[in-house]
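U., I forgot to send this yesterday:
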Amino acid sequence: MIYFDYAATTPLDMDCAEVYVKVSREFFGNSNSLHDRGGQAADILENCRAELARLLGIRKQGLYFTSGGSEGNFLAIEALLSSGKKKGKHIIAGMAEHYSIHGTLRRLKDLGYDITYLPYTSTGLIDPDVLQKSIQPETVLAIVQHVNSEIGTIQPIQEIGEICRNHNIFLHCDAVQSFGKINVISIVPYVSSLSFSGHKIYGPKGIGGVYIDPSIDWKPFFPGTSHEKGFRPGTVNVPGIAAMTVAAQKIFKRMQVDYDQFLQLRNFFITALEPILDRVKIYQAPINHQLPSILGMSITGIEGQWIMLECNRLGFEISTGSACHVGMQSPAMITKALGLDKIKAKEFIRISFGQATTEEDVKKLANGIVSIVENYPGSVVIP
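Result:
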């Protein structure tokens, strides 16, 4: 099988695996314990915090470790709302935010918050003018992802951040898909908080982090929590944090090389679809607002689930959207944000490249999809 679902998760890097095992076996103390082993674990923890803060261009005092992006999004939003900076119960969010964001917003709606969801333009971007017009006197928070996980578009965070700052509104940014792929340092001055995850960058699953501007006075969601300055309960996963830090160091070093390689693969793949391009729709932004490793597309007249299953039969692993949404029997969130009708929404598929992806892999996938389309039996209904 050839893997084309790197936007969902990545294989664990061997160096990271070795670090994880070493820290787990030799420095296994609880980082809050006062004995020597606890002190060793605490030293590793704080060294990792400092290194990740350096890579991200943030102050280490505002960096807290979590179990991943989903938990990070929830805790960041709750922390910002707890600050009491501004009275109000109105929140603005992108319509295609990650499902962890939508779940949190549904909870907040039940608590009396009013939510405004922003659609995407035809190029997969949020229009800052639409966001500006959506602001109300009671608006306290905006939530906009840095990179969309389903089509890879890069949102104009700097411009959105300026608008939020001018209106005394917090801005949370889900940076899970951009962390280690593009420059995140440039958006840090414009956000109140951001989240990231280890398993998207060849680190272990179950570990991630949140940055909250240290000038913000937030209150713990879980009372009585001592770990991570009260941000998150539970013994800190020092081995996971150490392994994620190694993954971050490695991917940040090769960021530009990866970007250039993914851009070449993207262009090669699109060119190889030439026999069926009249039926292919690629959802993308101009290249300066597009992560090249993620390609969201549809093929007219064929459901995405059919394409995915046929690809799997031929030895290619692709997806029909975010893995966190699989099984919900509803189209990817991006299709709603783009204003697609139900038929077009069900045609959506996602292909994503990783460090192991080769031009030969991409050629085989493109040829496989061309063959699937040319041999499509007709009307196939997938329940």
